[in-house]
Structure formats: C-alpha cells, structure tokens
Amino acid sequence: MMGYDVKNNYHNTSEKVLTLATAPMLKEKWRTKVDGFPPGTPVIAEGRVFVQATGGTFAISLANGKVLWSRSDLAGTSSIAYSDGFIYVHTGPADLYRVNPVDGKTLWGPVRTFATKDCDGESSPIVANGMVFVGHSCGPVEIGSADFTGALGGVEAFDANTGKPLWTYLTVPKTGENGAMVWSTVTVDVENKVVFAATGNNYSVQGENSDSIHAIDMMTGTRLWKKQVHNDDTWSLFGVPTGPDTDFGANPILAQIDGTQVVGDGTKGSSFHVMDRKTGNIIWERNDLSTSHNQANGGVLMNGAYDGANFYVVSNQPPNMAVLHAMDVKTGKDVWPPKTLSKLTWGAPSLANDVLIVPSDDTVLVMNAKTGEMITMFATGGTIAAGAPAIVDGNVVVGSGLDY
After folding, report:
1. How far apart are CA 314 and CA 206, in angstroms?
2. pTM (2 decimals)?
3. Beta carbons of 313 and 286 less than 8 angstroms apart
4. How much of the chain is in helix, strand and coil states, percent to nearest 5?
5. Exposure of 70 by Cβ count < 10 A (0-12 exposed, 13-18 middle, 19+ buried)?
C-alpha cells in the first residue's frame, strides 16, 4: 500500500536483492509515460506496477515498463492499495472502487466516500481486517471558497468485499468548528484495532481538533483519544484571520520504543511528535527540523520512514532547500548530522536493508541509512510529488512529473 504496509513504515522488510552492497550498481531500467502526472506511491504486486495519475489508473509490467491496461475514468492523486488479489482505487471526485488487477475491470464501485460539494479523494485507501479506510478532505474549499458549510474532516470505513459503508468518523463537530481535514492516509494498528488519522488546519472556526492525531476504534468509528500539537491554526487562501498553516500533511507512523507502542508524525510547522498509542501522551517531540516555514511548501510535507531504530524525515526549508534527519526512535536525537538537500522535497523516503531512498524534487537520492552517506543519484526529469519510491526485488520504482 502507500506506506508499504498498514503501519506506514515505508520499509520493505522482505527485500532480498537491494542492499548496501548492490545499491551502487543501480541503473535505469525503463521509463513509461502516463497521462497526467503520478503523485502517489507506485504499488507493486503480481509483477505489476499499479499507478494512479491525474490522467487515470495504469497497470505496468515491472519487467519491461509496458502498459498492461489503463483506465482514464479512475484518475486522481492518491495511491492504490493492493490486498488479497484486489486493488482499491480512490479517485479525485472521492469515489472508491475495487478493481481486478489482471484486467482493470470494476468489481464494485463507484462508492462515494464523502459527498460534500468540492471535497476530494486525496487520501489513499488502506485495507485491513476486511475493511477499507480512507480520509476525506476538501482542498477546493480551502483554496477557492469562503463557504465552509459541510467542510468537515473525517475518516470513512467500507466493507472490502462489498463496498458497503460501515462507519463515518468526523474530526470536528457537525456545527461550529470546521476543517481539520485528513489530507494524508490513515494508519491501522491491526492488533489493537485502532485507526490513526492526522488532521489539517481549521478553515474559519478554530477548535481543538485541528493539527491533531486522532485515535479511532477500528470496529465502531468512535473516538478513543485526540492530541492537538498546534493550536490557533485557522487558515484558508482567502480567509481572515489567516493562521500559520502548521498542520499534519503526512501519514502517522507506527513504531515501538522498547515495550511501548507509539505513533509518530511530522507537521508543516517543521516539527515531529511521538505519542503513546494507548493514551496520546507525548513521549518526545522536535520543533527544529528546519528553520523556516510557509504555507505553500514549508516543513514536513510528506511522510517519514521507520526501520525499527530510527525515523527518517525530510523538512523543507524554503525557498530552495530541505533538511533530512535520522532520529533515534527512543530519544528523537539525530543519529548522524542532518543532511542539507539542495532542493525542496515533495515526496517521501523509503527503506530496505539500510538503503535509504529519498526524493529531492526531481532527483532520486540513494543513501546509506546508517551513516547518511550518498551512494548514487538519478535525475527523473520531473518533480517527485507526494508518493515514495517503491522497492521490490532489486527494483526502485518512482513516479515523477509534477509541474509546479
């Protein structure tokens, strides 16, 4: 799925071929053009690379880059999920589908995930326990409207076999506070049956639910706890007052500190927060991942990766730099000196066998996760946006091409 698994670790623990010894031998294998641009993480299964782009959904041969099937009606900006022989697609208009990965035919759908006008399907589907979970957001409302009626963040759950809606969780009350969208993708703690969602800013009415991690009962959709990390963040492009826009735009990451189960996430305020999964109590936090911030491109825009020992997180430092951190999961301290990247970062890092793959605008950086040392790099010719490079069987697959 988007973050490799439901824990959003962006860490392929099953990889056997790509290692620190073989990484220097990486070379370009193929390029395949798709319609629009592909902002999500490529998802790989059954020898196929599944990609959603703004021009449709594509199944591509991992072996040679040949397009095996495509559907222009399944366009959007999220990542596809693969589970138990099926793929799940969340389109731009916020419609959810179950699709046959072999021929691209619809098995069920469209199922509308959030019906409010001008809301969208940015959040990638996550499949766990026979259920499909997606967040909902209303990007066009935030940047082009002064009417925030019904613009309420939330998470939806559906039956994976039938598409039947199971529950809706709203991040804010139905009246009063608005916004607090789930821009990112949820994370699922299957063992404890908890869904974790990270929220964005409020729109016109400030409240306690924006810029927060929400813990939701997986079976009922009821709130277990909520922890806000930044307040007074009421923001929209044409709104007054305008807050700092320091919200969560990245997926929560499940991790362990000795015997304690934790969840970590970074914000556009250049901060990273680690909380106890059961209580929401903050264990440690960092507010210094980069020194500057603005609404368009500052701070932690995309998800971090986790390998069992460290979090790997990039924080943008506008106008044209970013800072890569490897932070000890127990203390939050940098395990090697932070690396300054010469370009802004719009994609997420990923890992396998101590090989760290970091998108830096239009360039793929291949690094040693233990030391931060650069191994090699590849120019893609277009900005790598939102998703992470996918690592499988010695291949690194990345989507690029955002014109921004």
Report:
1. 28
2. 0.97
3. no
4. 0, 40, 55
5. middle
**To which residue do tokens 């997606």 refer?**
134
The answer to whether 171 and 152 are in contact (CB under 8 A) is yes
Beta strands in 37-190 (DSSP E): 43-45, 48-53, 56-61, 67-71, 81-83, 86-90, 95-99, 106-112, 126-128, 131-136, 154-159, 165-170, 187-189
What is the distance in angstroms between the CA of the first residue and the CA of the last residue of the chain?
26
- The burial class, CB within 10 Å (0-12 / 13-18 / 19+), for 394 is middle
- C-alpha–C-alpha distance, residues 390 and 400, integer Å: 13
Measured at the CA of 331, the angle between CA 330 and CA 334, to 5 degrees, comes to 115
Residue with tokens 């430092």: 317
Q: Give the confidence band of 150 by pLDDT, cuts at 50, 70, 90.
A: confident
Q: Bridge partners of 75?
A: none
70-105 residue pLDDT tens: 999 999 999 999 999 999 999 999 999 999 999 999
C-beta of residue 89 within 8 angstroms of C-beta of residue 97: yes
Q: How far is CA 181 from the centre of its chain?
A: 14
Query: Which secondary structure element, helix H or strand E, spans residue 141, and what is its range?
Result: helix 139-144
Cβ atoms of 276 and 301 within 8 Å: the answer is no
Give me 329's structure tokens. 């999961």
The dihedral through the CA atoms of 258, 259, 260, 263 has a sign that is positive
- Distance (Å, whole) CA 126 – CA 10: 14
Q: Please give the Cα distance from 345 to 389 (Å, whole number).
A: 13
Two tokens at 53? 């782009």
Residue 352's region, left for phi above 0, alpha for psi from -120 to 50, else beta, is beta
- Cβ neighbours around 165 below 10 Å, total: 14
Instruction: With CA atoms as reference, report the closest residue to 49 among 66, 71, 36.
Output: 66
